[in-house]
Amino acid sequence: MTLHLVRHGPSAQAPGTPAAEWDLDPAGYDAVWALRSSGRLPARAAWFTSPEPKAVQTAQLLTDAQVGVLPDLREHERTGEWIEDFPAAVRRAFDRPDEPAVDGWEPLAACRDRVVPAVRRVLEVHGDDDVVLVGHGTAWTLVVADLTGQPPDLDRWAALAMPDLITVDV
């Protein structure tokens, strides 16, 4: 079985609004459709998505299949405040997962403790099927680390496009 972790397409950023409320940027639809037509996603799979609008909208563009919405797949919770050096803030979150890297951010350990068990439950139920999960780069970095027993690959996180695909053989 293969787990396909899709990072959502480009966000329509709305300063002052939490990232969890951002929609998919219509200018990014072509990139999502390109992923759909790339042949990199399975023809048959169990599909689930984070409840965040940008993830739900990405999933809707990627498949005609039924897509379940799983609240625990939501991203590392952050405020909508602009962070000058966002990659450095995320790296701090990974360096000190039990502490908020920025005031108002969820400690990364809390995200891990929510997302990883949710993914494991999906894998238990759909153990014979390919699974596609549509969500977020930070959350998927935590999931891949857990499933592979490797440290989080922050270089891979930094290189993720919107959308992008990570596959893990489970």
UniProtKB/TrEMBL annotation:
Pfam families, A to Z: His_Phos_1
Domain of life: Bacteria
InterPro entries (alphabetical): His_Pase_superF_clade-1 (IPR013078), His_PPase_superfam (IPR029033)
Name of the protein this chain belongs to: Phosphoglycerate mutase family protein
Organism: Nocardioides pinisoli
Classification lineage: Bacteria, Bacillati, Actinomycetota, Actinomycetes, Propionibacteriales
